[in-house]
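Supplementary Text 2. Reproducibility record for the structural model of the 211-residue chain.

All settings were left at their defaults, and a single model was retained for analysis rather than an ensemble. We include the record here because the model underlies the residue-level annotations in Supplementary Table 4.
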Amino acid sequence: MSKVTEQKGGIETPLMKQYNQIKARHPEALLLFRVGDFYETFGEDAIKTSKILGIILTKRGAGSSSEIELAGFPHHSLDTYLPKLVRAGQRVAICDQLEDPKLTKTIVKRGVTELVTPGVAFNDQVLEQKKNNFLCAIHLDKNEHGIAFLDVSTGEFLISQGDKNHIDKLLQSFQPTEIVYQKNKNSLYQDLIGNQYHNFRLEDWVFTHEF
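Retained model, structure tokens:
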């Protein structure tokens, strides 16, 4: 994640310092950063957002040494744009203002209030009402693999294990919107499944028996 810099006289502004601190905690997510009446994205996030949503990509600090890509939309349009970002496979961290700007003389407190991924969504506009929205987890081994499906909107939870053919049949049947798997099995995952589904790699310890 490249650090977003916007400087005044070589000093990082309070807003960008706050943005960078929050972005560092969610490096894999596209960060929607609430600024006044808009959700704004910066840098690489802005480039992705503008392409997916078809909105204008502009520059913050245009012409200065701190120039950075910027793309945003009105906060009341979140229900329109969030589904498009998630269905494009993006993990989206929604960063809101946690206090009334009128009641503070310093920078407004902000924090991530929701992390939405293709497989973990409660928003009615993101979910397709006539079908399940399964998050899938796969534990890969040499010959037999473990697999689980969870729909957080209905509470349905299913688990199984078997060889590649068994896993393929289950994936085709349940059509998960997102698959999570361990980082150290990336080569095996690509050989078995490839990029047919939106996926996200988790730290290896998440898949240990002890955890």
